[in-house]
Structures are given as C-alpha cells and as structure tokens.
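FAQ

Q: What does a record look like?
A: Structure on top, sequence underneath. For example:
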C-alpha cells in the first residue's frame, strides 16, 4: 500500500478511535419552530438549527439575504436566536442560512438556505371583508345539515407577476382555489380556537397559480368547528351560524407595483355538489351537481347570488396560526375485505387512526355509495358503531357516471379502523376504498423497537393514538361526539407526545387556547380548551394542565419566551388554588374533581388528588420562576410547596407511610410529586409495591395514577415491578388490549373483554392517549434516554435491561440533535451503541464492576476518546461523554 494511503488510513482509524471531532455541519433550519414557515407574526422571529457531527459550536453567523448578517457571534446557542436585522414588513420574504464554528475555530459550510415570510403585521390591516352565503339554515334537529357553499370572483392581472401570496382565514372550514387549482392540501383551516376571541390565518405562496390576464378565485366554505356539531353538546352553531371566509391575494408585479384582491361584496355565491358536511356527522357529495370550471375565470356566475358580508356573531383578533397545519400523513390499504351481509362490504385497514376514506369508483349516474366508519367489529363481522354515540360518521357519494371518479371528503373526519361500504355493484378491489390518515403535521421525533413484539405493538399503538388525536387541538378521542381538548388528558400525555413527535409549535398554539383564552377570570383553568367562554372548572389533575403543559414544553424545548408568556396565567392559577384552600392549606369542602378517572375499583380520595396536584403545580411554578430568573418568586413558591407538603403529610399520610385511600394512585402521587421523604417515602414505596403484588402484579390506576405509576417504580428502584407490569397481558394491562387485537390505546382498560364484550358504549373510545403516557417510561428506562436539564443539553443514557428483553433500539430527535441508545444483552454480556449529539454532554451508565470489564470503541476504557470514567455505582461504570458515537462491550459481572 502506498505510504500516503497508509497515513490517511491511520489518521481515519485514529479519528474514529479517539472520537476526535471532524468539522461540524449544520442543518434542520427552523423559524419559530417550523420548517420554512410562511406568514409568521411573531416578532422578532427566532431562528434555530441543529449542528451535526461531533464537538461543540463556539460561534455562529446568520445571514438573511439583503437584510441582516449577524457577523460571527461567539455563542453556543443553537435555537431561538432572535432575528436582529431591520424591522420586517408585512409579507416580507426572508431567505437565510447559517454557519457555525467548532472549538478549534473551524467553520462549517454554510447551511442549505431556508425561508420564512412574515404575515400581515400591524399597522397594516386587513382590507378584505368577511364573506359567506346565508341560506336559510335548517334547525339543528333531525340531522338536517346545511350545505357547504361556493364563493368566487374573477380578476385581472395585467402586468407580469413577480410574486403572489394568499392570506386567508375563516369562521368555519374552507378550501381555496385559484384558477381552478387547489391552493393547498392543508385541512380544516383555520384551525380551532375560541372564535369569540381570536382566529388564525394561513399564508400560501401562489405565485405559480396566477397568470397574466384573467384569473379567478374560489372557495368552498363549510361549518367546521365554528358552526358544525362539536363536543358532546348535541348542538351545532356554538360560535355562530354564519360561516365566513376572509382572504386576500397580494400581487406583486415585476415593475414593483402591487395590488390586493380580497373577499368582499363583489364576490358571488352558490351551492354545489357538497350537500352536507359536518365534523362529526360526515359529508355528502352529489357529483351530478358538480359545476365544472366554477373556480376558473370564464365561468358564468351571473346566476349566482351576491355574497353576504361581515361577521355577524364574533369579532375575533386575526393572528398567524403558530402551529403546523393538518395534513395527510399516511394511506392505509385494506388488509382484509369481508361481506358480513349481502353487498355490505367491510374493509379492515389494519390500523385505528383518524381521517377519511378515499373512494375510486366507476359508477353509474346517481349510484349512491355510503361509507360508515368504526373502530371495532361486532361478533357477526358488521361494524360496531354504538360507541360513536351521536356522531353519525357517515359519508355519502353520489356518482356522476361516465368514467372513473375519485373522491374523498374534505370537511369531516372520523376515527376508525374499519370502513363499511354499501352501494357498490361488486366487491371492492384493494384500491377502491383506502384510508387516508390525517393529523397535525408534527415531524416524527422518536423511534423504538425491542425484542418483544408486544412492546413494539404498544409503541405503535401509542404513536397512532397520538396522531389520531393531534388534529389542531390535543383531543381526548377522534371518533365519538366529543373530540375535545380535554385538559387532564393533555397534561398526563404531554411529555410522551414530545418523545414521539416534534410538538413544539403544535403546543404553542394550544397553550394559547388554554392559558390565554381558556383561563377563568379567577385563575382556574377549564376542563377543555378551546372553550367558548371560559367558565368551567377543570378541577385537580385537569386544570393543572395550565401549569404542567407550559412547563413541560419549556423543559423539553427550552423556549423561554413562551414560558414567560404563560407565567402570569400559571401564577394566577396557584393563587386560585391557594385562595380556595382552608386556612391550614387543605382543600375546600366542595370542589369539582374527576378523580383518578377510569381506575379499576380503586378510587383515590379527591382531597388527596387536590392537594397533590396543588403541590405539584406550585413546585413547577417555582421551577419556572427559577428558569426565568424571578428569584423572589422562586423562593415564594418553593416555600408554598413545602407548606402544602406539610399539610399533605399531616392530613393524608399516616405514621407508617399509608396515604389516605390506600390506592396505588395515592402512593404514586405522593412519591412522584416529592410529597413524602425518608422513612415515610420508603414505607409508601413498600405499600405501593405490596398493593400491586396483592392484585397479582396488576395495576389499578386510572388516568391520573397511570401517568406516573411506572416512573415512580423506576424512581424507587423497582423497575423489576415495572417490568412485570409492562410485560403483563392479563387484565388490566397494556398487553391485555394488545391480546385483543388493539392497534391503538383504549380509553378504558376493559374497552372489550372476552367475558363481557364491549364496555359501556356511553364512554368507550378505542383511541384515547392517556394510558399511552407509559411511553415516557419506555424511552427513559428500556431505552434509557433521559433529559438531564436545559432541554437535553445534558443527557443521561442508562438503559435497564430487565432480563426479558434481549435488545432494544431507541432514538430521540431532541431540539439539539439526535440521541441514540441501542443495546443487546445476552448471558451477562452487554453491547451498547450510543450517539450523543454535538453541543451536548452525557452521563452514560454501562453495566460493569470495573474498568477492565468494558471496552469502548474497541479500546480499553482508558484509551477511548471522548469518555471519562467518573465512578462506579450500583454495578455500573458511570462515564462522562462528549458528543460522538460510542460502542461499548461489557460484562456485568466483571
Ligand atoms: C373524556 C375524557 C376526559 C373525561 C373527564 C371524558 O368524556 O373522554 O378523556 O378526561 O371525560 O373526566
């Protein structure tokens, strides 16, 4: 081999074995937590990136073309860097890139360019008016639904176009067209807010759709969350009964002039093929009534009616939507097609999810195809719909005839695994009807696989239940007539949500619904958000979402601006809880509380839940105060936490560590929230374990207790008990539902049992994420990846093989980069592959009794670059790790 090649080879080996850093790279550029967002109104916008490779960023330079260059800034900050160039104007387009330097002064290449554009900023105001078509509206009885309406206008653009931007909002849902082409595939725009207070707009680049000369704009407007059936109210028109659209097309001509075409009285309205469309009830489309070319310029709209203008019921603030849009996220083809009754076909899509069907059919004119949706089947193979309650969940398509027709509803969604199809003349083929999964476009952040197929199914069930319920709002369920942003469900699940997907922007939006719009004047947070008028009382475990969710999002993503934004609401809530306590800090005689919802014959006294959650929220507000540098508040809330803790112990904990009620959930709350110390904590821990054992190694917890049950077992050093619970497949357990074929997380442990069949159909969803909160334990204990502070700036890697699993592969894309923890374990030998992203540090726990028992990257530990032995602890070598990828081989006995 030539000498030079040998040298290069040696150098390469050397770099790998020492873990020495190659130059950094930089990517994943985001603005306001979104990838290339259009129309943001946060000022100043904040920019983020992720360094790649090993090592540390010591400086960055941001260049925004033609506007601002930060110059080289000595800083290791990689997210939420504020744009500091000249003030930005409405709709301004900003192209930017970034480069970074490592600790040896090497610069990365410039990143690929990214873009953001601004929305309509003050003092610019909307020029367009609200428009709609106010047909006589059937009363909200007998399910007579009003039809969606079409609106259109034509306009001319007589000069060459440089850029065209569409800014649009609505009261109801809308779908926009420009010259007959759909402006976007986003669904359910403008999202769900308390429309009495605010409504969001979205911005689209439509330069490619506008032509010189004659153009036309069109829109279909449907009831959506504004005036359709929502929640369990058995009523529609919650916010108003006059759905509206407000849109502006901003044209910038090549000669530097501009024009705006907005919605207003010149628009015309009609009804079309959409005969009905409702969130819960479904959609009916009569293709025979299609108006060809209705959104094109030459369409004759003279017979159309003038539009109605103005918003009649609400005058909300207009702001840019801060979160991701709802989009198609997957397509499921049927795995099985059966015919339980003649000409009634049932398609099993193999996965419970939220979305719609896509129909492809060559029917005759007037042929009516009906699609009904269900999560489960009856014993005779027909679909089980009783648990949908009053949600009709039925779509109807009436064929036009004369060729292949493709249709999918746009203004409804359903929660389902099965589709019943009637009206076909022959058995459907695999592509006649497919399922289209919809969800907020939250990028996938987590990955999990292990040697136990049941746990892999559990992970999949959790992931899909999250996708099914993250539809602009984190909801309880996607199928029955409820689908509300239940606060208790959201708070128990939020941490797990962050481990599956990047939900930062999604929660940024919902925290406004909850904290800004949903809080009652006296400080209490509601049962659900968004709500119309804040007046309801979430009660302990539910209302606390107003503290737990903003704190968790801060803890994971490190966004100080947002924590600051909600800090006032959080402290007002603590004041509310404090004010309604008795003078000795005990709960008032009466208060609303859902308890440990859906537990197994183990009701935890509501006063225990009240005080435990009051303590927890107070502790988190103290941490928030500390994070925000509010030192006095940090002291004040820490002291209050101690006082509540004292009251809790005095009132509810006996000398031998029994928590009032003697339930698993009671012990879990006391231990999870640091309410018991020393001997008392040890005794409480013992009572918890004994309680689990007394139930034959089964849990008895509901929503509140299950959230922290496994985490507490890890905390008290009893992952052996946790392992028993996670591998259990007898009732009640996660595995039990999987044994019954679950492809999603059930609302109740007994959703279906072989002995009793379906549980109470009055409340029996098969897609409720609360019990899926266990994924946090899986990532932190099976995978062993933990956030050790400052949004994963410091990471702990401590996988805990339980003797039943032989391998696990877990990854998490944190805000600072991708973390990997893979391990294999056989006969006392363990191998681990760990990746620690640039700019972070980690403490890695490798099973071993002595340094001689470990090899790192093929070397004795002492020679392995990037690692430093800190100590030995409980059969583990504890290593301090620099960014990089490591391979460990160890023997736990040596
Ligand atoms: C919802 C829950 C919610 C509960 C309140 C139910 O109807 O589906 O998930 O938390 O009510 O107890």
């Amino acid at each position: 081999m030539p000498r030079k090649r040998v040298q290069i080879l040696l150098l390469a080996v050397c770099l790998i074995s020492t873990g020495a850093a190659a130059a950094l790279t930089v990517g994943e550029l985001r603005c306001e937590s979104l990838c290339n967002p259009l129309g943001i109104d946060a000022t100043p916008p904040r920019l983020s990136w992720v360094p790649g490779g090993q090592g540390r960023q010591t400086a960055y330079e941001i260049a925004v073309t033609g506007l601002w260059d930060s110059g080289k800034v000595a800083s290791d900050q990689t997210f939420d860097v504020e744009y500091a160039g000249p003030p930005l104007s409405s709709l301004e387009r900003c192209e930017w890139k970034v480069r970074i330097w490592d600790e040896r002064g090497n610069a990365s290449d410039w990143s690929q360019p990214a873009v953001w554009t601004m929305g309509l900023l003050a003092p610019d105001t909307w020029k367009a008016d609200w428009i709609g078509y106010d047909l006589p509206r059937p009363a909200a009885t007998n399910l007579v639904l009003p039809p969606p309406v079409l609106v259109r206008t034509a306009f001319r653009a007589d000069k060459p176009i440089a850029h065209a931007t569409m800014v649009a909002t609505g009261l109801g849902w809308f779908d926009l067209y420009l010259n007959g082409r759909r402006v976007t595939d986003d669904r359910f725009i403008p999202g769900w807010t308390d429309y009495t207070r605010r409504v969001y707009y979205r911005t689209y680049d439509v330069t490619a759709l506008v032509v010189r000369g004659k153009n036309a704009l069109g829109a279909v407007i449907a009831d959506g969350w504004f005036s359709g059936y929502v929640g369990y109210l058995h009523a529609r028109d919650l916010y108003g009964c006059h759905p509206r659209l407000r849109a502006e097309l901003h044209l910038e001509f090549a000669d530097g002039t501009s024009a705006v075409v907005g919605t207003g009285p010149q628009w015309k309205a009609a009804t079309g093929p959409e005969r009905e469309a409702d969130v819960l009830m479904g959609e009916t489309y009569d293709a025979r009534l299609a108006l060809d070319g209705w959104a094109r310029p030459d369409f004759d709209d003279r017979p159309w009616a003038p539009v109605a203008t103005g918003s009649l019921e609400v005058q909300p603030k207009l702001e840019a939507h801060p979160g991701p849009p709802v989009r198609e996220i997957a397509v499921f083809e049927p795995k099985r097609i059966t015919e339980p009754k003649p000409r009634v076909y049932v398609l099993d899509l193999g996965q419970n999810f939220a979305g719609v069907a896509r129909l492809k059919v060559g029917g005759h004119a007037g042929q009516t195809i009906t699609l009904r949706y269900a999560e489960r089947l009856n014993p005779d193979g027909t679909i089980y719909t009783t648990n949908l309650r009053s949600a009709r969940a039925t779509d109807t398509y009436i064929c036009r005839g004369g060729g292949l027709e493709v249709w999918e509803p746009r203004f409804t969604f359903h929660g389902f695994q099965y589709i019943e199809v009637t009206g076909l003349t022959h058995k459907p083929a695999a592509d006649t009807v497919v399922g289209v999964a919809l969800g907020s476009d939250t990028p996938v952040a987590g990955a999990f696989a292990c040697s136990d197929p049941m746990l892999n199914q559990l992970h999949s069930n959790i992931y899909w239940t999250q996708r099914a319920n993250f539809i602009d709002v984190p909801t309880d369920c996607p199928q029955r007539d409820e689908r509300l942003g239940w606060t208790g469900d959201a708070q128990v699940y939020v941490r797990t949500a962050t481990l599956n997907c990047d939900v930062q922007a999604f929660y940024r939006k919902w925290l406004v619904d909850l904290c800004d719009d949903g809080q009652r004047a006296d400080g209490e947070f509601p049962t659900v958000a968004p709500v119309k008028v804040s007046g309801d009382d979430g009660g302990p475990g539910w209302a606390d979402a107003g503290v737990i969710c903003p704190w968790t999002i801060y803890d994971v993503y490190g966004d100080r601006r947002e924590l600051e934004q909600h800090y006032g609401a959080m402290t007002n809530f603590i004041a509310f809880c404090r004010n309604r306590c008795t003078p000795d800090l005990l709960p008032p005689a009466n208060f609303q509380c859902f308890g440990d919802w859906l537990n197994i014959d183990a009701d935890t006294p509501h006063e225990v839940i009240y005080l435990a959650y009051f303590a927890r929220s107070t502790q988190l507000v103290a941490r928030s105060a500390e994070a925000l540098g509010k030192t006095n508040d940090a002291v004040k809330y820490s002291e209050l936490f101690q006082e509540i803790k004292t009251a809790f112990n005095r009132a509810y904990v006996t000398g031998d560590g029994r928590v009032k009620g003697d339930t698993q959930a009671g012990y879990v709350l006391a231990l999870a929230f640091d309410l018991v110390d020393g001997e008392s904590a040890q005794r409480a821990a013992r009572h918890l374990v004994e309680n689990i054992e007394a139930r034959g190694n089964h849990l008895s917890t509901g929503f509140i207790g299950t959230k922290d049950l496994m985490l507490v077992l890890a905390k008290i050093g009893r992952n052996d008990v946790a392992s028993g619970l996670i591998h259990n497949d007898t009732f009640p357990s996660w595995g039990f539902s999987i044994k019954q074929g679950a492809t999603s997380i059930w609302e109740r442990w007994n959703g279906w049992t072989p002995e009793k069949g379906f549980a109470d159909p009055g409340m029996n969803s098969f897609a409720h994420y609360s019990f899926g909160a266990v994924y946090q334990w899986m990532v932190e204990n099976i995978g062993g990846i933990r956030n050790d502070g400052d949004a994963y700036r410091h990471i702990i890697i401590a996988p805990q093989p339980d003797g039943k699993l032989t391998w696990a592969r877990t990854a998490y894309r944190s805000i600072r980069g991708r973390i990997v923890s893979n391990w294999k374990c056989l006969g006392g030998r363990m191998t681990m592959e760990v990746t620690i992203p640039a700019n972070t540090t980690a403490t890695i726990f490798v099973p071993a009794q002595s340094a001689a028992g470990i090899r790192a990257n093929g070397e004795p530990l002492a020679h392995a670059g990037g690692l430093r032995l800190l100590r030995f602890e409980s059969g583990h070598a504890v290593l301090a790790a620099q960014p990089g990828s490591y391979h460990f081989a160890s023997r736990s006995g040596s």
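Q: Is there anything notable about this one?
A: The pocket of beta-D-glucopyranose is lined by residues 476-477, 482, 486, 488-489, 594, 597, 763, 768 (CB under 6 Å).
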